[in-house]
Design goal:
Number of strands: 8
Strand order of the largest sheet: 3-2-4-5-6-7
Shape: globular
Structural class: alpha/beta
CATH topology: Cytidine Deaminase, domain 2
Helix content: 10-25%
Radius of gyration: 14 Å
Largest sheet: 6 strands, mixed
Bound molecules: zinc ion
Number of domains: 1
CATH class: Alpha Beta
Distance between the termini: 16 Å
Strand content: 35-45%
Low-confidence stretches: none
CATH architecture: 3-Layer(aba) Sandwich
CATH superfamily: Cytidine Deaminase, domain 2
């Protein structure tokens, strides 16, 4: 995936702000061919969302259907699609949980941040191609 440093910073700020709860948000952009010929998700907009899980928000997250649809229609009006989502793991590694594996959407990028003591220690991205298992993908951070 590709993302600008500024948008990556927005995600990290969000994760630190809501600590010790998990943050969540949506990534809007396009699945594009990069300079070396392969296709990957390119993030053009980041939409921080509210974690509406009714309990244990430090252990999981949920984005409301209403907010998802609002972000999706706004993204489409700009010519983008929802290409993935991000969330944080508080006091845990940035690795997909069983729940994350089960809820991975094909062709979407799942960005996971590891936050400990209000600091973001690690950011990793995982991609689930159609009919293939989940795999880690490189995060290419573009300059501002
Ligand atoms: Zn997770």
């Amino acid at each position: 995936m590709q993302i600008s440093q500024r948008k990556l910073d927005i995600i990290k700020e969000h994760a630190m702000q809501v600590y010790p709860e998990e943050c969540c948000g949506l990534l809007a952009g396009r699945y594009e061919q990069s300079f070396d010929g392969h296709y990957e998700n390119v993030v053009y907009e980041v939409a921080p969302c509210r974690n509406v899980l009714s309990w244990d928000r430090h252990m999981g997250f949920e984005i409301s259907k209403t907010e998802y649809c609002e972000v999706e229609s706004e993204a489409r009006s700009m010519g983008y699609n929802i290409i993935g989502a991000y969330h944080s793991h508080t006091n845990a590694d940035a690795l997909p949980s069983n729940h994350d594996y089960e809820h991975a959407i094909p062709n979407h990028t799942m960005v996971i941040l590891s936050v400990r003591e209000t600091l973001v220690l690690q950011v990793r991205a995982f991609f689930r191609p159609f009919s293939e298992p989940f795999q880690e993908e490189r995060i290419y951070v573009k300059s501002l």
